[in-house]
Predict the 3D structure of the following.
Amino acid sequence: MKLPSGFQTVEALELFLSFPVRRVVDALRALDGDVMILGVGGKMGPTLAMLARRAIEQGGLDKRVIGVSRFSNAAARARLQQAGVETIACDLMDDEALSALPDAPNIVYMAGMKFGATGQEPRTWAMNAFLPGRVMQRFRQSRIVLFSSGNVYPLTPVVAGGCTEQTSPAPVGEYAQSVLGRERIFEYFAAQSGAPGLIFRLNYAVEMRYGVLLDVAQRVWAGTPIDLSMGHVNVIWQGDANAYALCALALAESPPRVLNITGPETISIRHLAIQFGALLGREPALVGVEQPNALLSNAGAAFKLLGYPRVPLAQIVEWVAAWVKAGGPTLDKPTKFQVRDGRF
């Protein structure tokens, strides 16, 4: 598919984010049964569900896509239903509601808590480490892709190319510790049931309304200082991350496989700000000094298994700059990528 020059509306953006590339259609064809997405109401969930639905339709497959969330945003639920996604309003922390969910052989588990974790540590641990065990007990025979985070890794030297799946976790802060708890609980119950699983360690999905690139672009546009202490990051286009998540269902195994998901570049925040400055006609206000280490992941294994991301970084930068300049809507959820002490 030819990449668009830009996006004028949210609808156009979501259509592109949910475009069904061939590898997604093939992956879903290889699976038996329906796909359920737990925590579908978050930043990525809606377009991931739409992608699954469109891929099933394109492949002529007989499968349902079921999206589960509390759905505090009624408009998001209506948008999913309009796209052909079946929706169920459910608080997964409610045992009775969890038990009442329909069986599904294929599950993408996206529920979790990050922002606001500081000050709500008990709830963070309950959501991120206790709940996965309850879900695994309910769906003990299902194939599950568990969303996790590159935050479980230590800060690593910028010149080292990022942590691989063989890097020992060393999470900084309670949020990251609770995410590692999520993984360990998942692995424990997966070992008990023998069900196939995959731990999807994602490092910064981005699109026009959310992500590190938007954070930097907005600060350049507003003249707000940009802290360089976390001087390097990895990002991946959300549409590519969506595709990888659905393809990962076919890679699930017992014991669960771990797979890093991010883009191929180690991105300098300084150079990124300068790029946005040129595109937006503003001089970035840079403060602080880059530290020699950062939170970085290496997704080479995913590229070998699932192919290279199709949307290049340079194109995303141009899209984000145009979106910010036009005053496009955002989710108003800063990533806090600059945090080095793990306090989100």
Observations:
- Residues 10-207+236-264+295-310 form a domain with the Rossmann fold fold (CATH 3.40.50.720).
- Residues 99 and 266 are 43 Å apart (CA to CA).
- The longest strand covers residues 143-149.
- The chain has one domain: 10-207+236-264+295-310.
